[in-house]
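Hey, I was hoping to borrow your eyes for a little while. No rush at all, and the record is pasted right below.
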Amino acid sequence: MLRTVGSMIDPSADRPVYKQLADLVRGQIERGELHPEQRLPAETDYVREFGISRDSVRRAMGLLRAEGLVTTTQRGSRVRPESDVDEVEVPPHVAIGSRMPTDQERREFRIEPGVPVFVLRYPDGREAVLPADRVLIVTTP
């Protein structure tokens, strides 16, 4: 049984149901109700509990993966383990963008599916690619 007492998903609401589910799970993670590396309920549990489609559950998990909050394998989804975050100082005039990593970057940085990378473009043409889930970008004056 899911620990969602008092939490409901409203199919008639303006917000899509997959985003409502993502909000519920994100809230459980932020409040510490779900701990790092804890296994999330199975898709079928969410389907049964909220009366939503499996596709909506998968879209919610995809959104949470993209935010770096969960990881998913064939065995299910888990709250992402806490990891150290490196601060990267970025001087003025460096353009900062983001995109999904290439397969090579995913392997090189050991990036989970759904996690983007930051791309720093320096005025001299150099580029640096950094995993977005492990980097805090700090601008310098």
